[in-house]
Amino acid sequence: MNGSGSQRLLPGLPYPLGATWDGKGVNFALFSAHAEKVKLCLFDPAGRRELERLTLPEYTDQVWHGYLPEAAPGTLYGYRVYGPYDPRNGHRFNHHKLLLDPYAKSLAGHVLQADAIFGYRPGSAREDLSYDRRDSARAMPKCRVVDSAHSWGNERRPAVPPADTIIYETHLRGFTMRFPGLAEPLKGSFAGFGTAPVIAYLRSLGITSVELLPIQSFYDDRHLIAKGLRNYWGYNTLGFFAPDPRYLSSGDIEEFKIMVARLHDAGIEVILDVVYNHTCEGNHLGPTFSFKGIDNASYYRLLPDQKRYYIDDTGVGNTLNVTHPRVMQMVLDSLQYWVTEMRVDGFRFDLAATLGRGPGGFDPGNSIFAAIQQSPELRGIKFIGEPWDIGPGGYQLGNFPPGWSEWNDRYRDTVRRYWRGDEGMLPELAARITGSADLFDRAGRRSWATVNFVTAHDGFTLRDVVSYNEKHNEANLEDNRDGNSENFSANYGVEGPSDDPEIEAVRWRQMRNLAATLLISQGLPMMLAGDELGRTQQGNNNAYCQDDEIAWLDWAAAEAPEPQAHLAFTRRLLELRRQHPVLHRARFLHGHQQSGDGLGDIAWFAPDGTEMTPERWQDGLARCIGVCLNGQAGADRGPDGTPLRDDIFLILMNAHHEAVPFILPRLANIDGWHRVLDSSEPILASGAPMLPPEQGYDLPGRVLVILLANRAPDKAAGEGEPSQSRDPAK
Question: Is 386 a catalytic residue?
């Protein structure tokens, strides 16, 4: 088993990295700048017995490589890397530990919780300075050689324009585990998510893109397993190329490709949530799975004067060293692989501020951003950053380079606080629902630079935002210490479930207000799966470890009348947004662009029907406002270059708990308004009379109403009083 392999392994090539089958054999190539020797370990088909160890015969440009003529797809392998075990100088080589190939495209099996997975002897007096000689192979998954060939047929990317994109963030396991009629073997898998009923539901909803929580292979932390919990979300990456085996009902990565092809056939994009800021190997006391044993000093950022320890800008023990050329290459190769081989349409980067941090701090011109921008394979792909981490200068909202969209937590907090009834929110609300131009209108960035969201996987669901004042994370077994305590939520009288019809009526209306605000806002909206059905996590705002009914969608409960009414309301909202370009402009709105009748592209109105003044914007007690979106004005153009023209909408929002009389403004060439959506009526009755200008409209408490202008064809353009709009963000 410990043969040199000199007679069987040919020199091979130092590229591409990973295990590459060429139809006759497999080329193995592994980067390590500080290793002294690398052995390729081959296993039986079950992955239980190590058959032999072959020394990679060549070392070229810091890459160890060899070619095995008789190897074929399905071959299971791993590496043992030799070198100094010297943590004080940043080196943690231990050839007793079987290591995963960072470029492995498929994994067989899972990590078993055993002390042998640690490079040191846990519990020893010297902790990680000790050296452990136990073999970890039996506790480790094995890398599998793959054949990348796949018949994609007539598959085409949907290529949804950014301005038209509506993201649906979901966990594919949580979405499918209780999906009605889904066969048991398909639950929680790519195959299940790619079935016709699931795709039919997504299409009927009206979203354009699904954003899947991490599906790259990940590790369940030992402390979670000990508590009977799991790393449900998956933000603990084990390998950046391989889909996690737990999502493969067939065990074959073809399953992922088939899912993507079926979603594409339905016109739905696939966006992956990816974690290139850290790995699952943790801090100096963490396990040794791959990077730590291959070349710890290259793959991770270490404290300059204490290389035994890791720089932890991510809060999970380590930080990937993306400034290293080979590590940056791995990230870029991974992105390109998922785009070219797996056909995904975009990426959402967890803690993306970490990627942009170099020795001098965060830099939007960082080499990794430049490399992504310059990659031909990544052109036209959607890039979304979570623009923060816990490192120095970690909050970078609005500072990412052109071409990126960013999660906008200021939007989330503002919209929640406004509808909760907080004081002084009108100026901030106006800035957020018009695309956050104060943050993003620079360098030619467009309105889709902001990813607007009211809820996400991290935090309360929409139902819980209106049902709980406080987080309730007791099921996480951390004494409710975990999770964010500042949720800007409200329970409206009772903490949690209530059988009071008045409280429930307020909650459902507030849910409709929050959903409607999201989908009438300029920018790129992101919905959380299940919000359209009123899904609850029982007040848990950090369900990262809850692979159970707390986090799964309860499709049976969604059949009740109120969830179904909310679903119908949400579908109507999505349809309105899709049909009307004025609700998703590509350019920011400042009120400067005018139509022929002198009406600006946007105008703001007080309840008395007159335009907002600076004094009114500063009225901290004001909670009611109207915004007019003029589809006849603006600089947006269609693919053929013709100006995009649309209807004129008046959106009335009242966050007061009491009704407010609102005088409908008189605008040029408009002789009335039709009510097209009302959060106080989830299913709007037809046949309502047209509302004339200058008439008082009794706007109920806590309500959002969308009115459509009835344009008078007999009036000449320009007749009437022009609107002198003001931009509250200025």
Answer: yes
